[in-house]
Amino acid sequence: MGLTIHPATAPIKRPVIPPSAGSAPDMPTLLTPPLALYVHFPWCVRKCPYCDFNSYSLSGELAQEPYVARLARDLEAQAPQVAGREVRSVFFGGGTPSLFAPSAIGRVLEVARAQLPLAAEAEVTLEANPGAIERGAFREYRAAGVTRVSLGAQSFDERALGALGRIHSPLDTVRAATELHAAGLGNFNLDLMYGLPGQDVAAAVHDIEAALALSPAHLSHYQLTLEPGTPFAVRPPALPDDDECATMLEECQARLSASGFAQYEVSAYARAGAQCHHNLNYWTFGDYLGVGAGAHGKLTFAADSRIVRTTQLREPRRYLAAPDAALARRTISPEELPFEFMLNALRLTAGFGTRSFIARTGLAWEAIAGPVQAAQAAGLLLRTAEGYRPSVRGLRFLNDLLLPFLPETSEKSDVSALSMATPEVAARA
Ligand SMILES: C[S@@+](CC[C@H](N)C(=O)[O-])C[C@H]1O[C@@H](n2cnc3c(N)ncnc32)[C@H](O)[C@@H]1O
Ligand code: SF4
Predict the structure, then answer these.
(1) Is 197 left (phi over 0), alpha (psi -120 to 50) or beta?
(2) In terms of Cα–Cα distance, which of 408, 349, 334 is closest to 382?
(3) Which of 66, 120, 239, 295 is the most buried (most CB within 10 A)?
(4) How do beta strands 218-223 and 268-270 pair?
(5) What are 393-427's pLDDT values in tens digits?
(6) pTM of the model
(7) Is residue 224 within 6 Å of ligand 1 at its C-beta?
(8) Spans of the chain below 50 pLDDT
């Protein structure tokens, strides 16, 4: 189908990694990138049957106080790794962080501020489920320090929401958006999915129009995927075919573009100036501290020429009970770095700069010169003034574009082999 670089016709070129990349004096220098903070909240009112994020149906009372206390210990234990570095953005993700009271979110922010220098203009995003928001709560979240909200609208079709097992109605989303504007939080995102059970092109476009009518600043538009291990993967609902999904995407994109929403990432569209700073930091291979159950982090230690991934205990009960030092750490090898960088950077319509690749991985350009050339020759990558960006086809068939950057040891068929590398997949790990 979309496979444009096929091993049978065009051998996959592997990155050539200099043996001591990043350490020899004449090698490129690894620079310390900007830093963000991700805080994970693992509970939802009810687990959706398509979702493989690290989230759990809430049974019994929410462990609000113990969890906030545990997050505080996590932050205190991890802060020394990034001593002196400013945090540019904070993202409260889930799960459903909006199950936590504004005062609880405020306390986590206070602890973060006490442990780390938070930039004065830091973007602070809270993910919210329209079915798990108390009336008037957005004003309080804003007073607690939240500057941006990401609302899981998914669809405005009652039947589609039912098929997705959602706890909210289209009216809940409309109310939530109205309250966001009234609370001075007009900088909000709506998550929408397309390719839904029983959906046709007109219905997908209608969802976009219903979303635009609520005047969001940002829109995330994901094609529903059947994730292994979920109830939808075990008993798949009837979904629109690939051609119909491709038409949905085209028509929705045209509608978004006509309304002033520019695509800047595979699934993200924003009004001018309303791009998500936090996610841009992931996609430009910035650093982030990850706290909370199952949270991942990525930290650069430039003095040691090392980039480290951190992983917290996934299961909430184990996380709550664990000592402060429960964090797992793994240094990303030079062989993995090109793919990890590209897995993020090639999601952006603007692509990446060659200098940025060198500064953020510490590798020489030669490490990816071959695969870049091959992708360019295949029409998947285009030259820009500063570096390279994916072509329209490259963005559409991203897996094909990423294949040549896979390290030698990985399975060709499994582009998600290093799936920790993107934040949204990381939340699923
Ligand atoms: C972690 S959820 C956060 C929002 C909040 N928990 C909610 O669902 O209202 C992030 C977003 O990922 C998207 N998502 C989750 N599972 C998906 C799947 N299998 N296919 C496509 N998008 C998915 C949904 O749009 C969802 O809003
Ligand atoms: S999609 Fe959102 S609300 Fe549904 S289970 Fe996943 S994290 Fe929870």
Answers:
(1) beta
(2) 349
(3) 295
(4) antiparallel
(5) 999 999 999 999 998 776 655 555 444 444 444 44
(6) 0.91
(7) yes
(8) 1-26, 417-429
